[in-house]
Design a protein that fits this description.
Layout lengths: L12 E6 L5 E7 L3 E6 L2 E4 L17 E5 L5 E5 L1 H4 L10 H9 L7 H16 L9 E5 L4
């Protein structure tokens, strides 16, 4: 991306591999993505700010890992979700995404994603103005 643009194009990215038998996640991210794990009525942030793709030729991205437990959901979303503002200028934030899912991890991943989209639309007073990409992955018990 660095060599193929005028230096003014950037992208966020998430790359992860999950061992479906153990729930072990190995991943790396670029940019300012929201990354959370939701379990029952609790949630945890795995987010880390890093360079965006296209920021420079020497940008590096650190890998990290997490062991998803059965019943937990991994939720990854772009800054268009996290930074969506309400009428008072308050961002939805990671906590707003998490609150939409607390106590809902029994639902299928697509229904959990729909709950976040509804929360985003309600918070922002309509459709998101920025990109709003969302991924929900559940670790279901064998």
């Amino acid at each position: 991306m660095w060599t193929g643009s005028a230096g003014d194009q950037f992208a966020s990215a998430f790359y992860g591999m999950i061992d479906t038998a153990t729930g072990v996640l190995n991943c790396a991210s670029a940019g300012q993505l929201g990354i959370i794990v939701v379990r029952g009525t609790e949630w945890e942030s795995l987010s880390c700010n890093s360079a965006q793709l296209g920021e420079g030729p020497d940008a590096s991205f650190e890998a990290f890992g997490y062991e998803l437990q059965p019943g937990e959901a991994l939720v990854v979303f772009t800054d268009g979700v996290r930074d969506a503002r309400d009428k008072k200028g308050q961002p939805l934030g990671e906590s707003g995404v998490a609150e939409a899912l607390l106590g809902k991890t029994h639902l299928p991943a697509d229904q959990m994603a729909q709950l976040v989209r509804e929360r985003l639309d309600t918070h922002a007073g309509g459709p998101a103005r920025d990109d709003a990409t969302l991924l929900v992955v559940k670790h279901t018990p064998a």
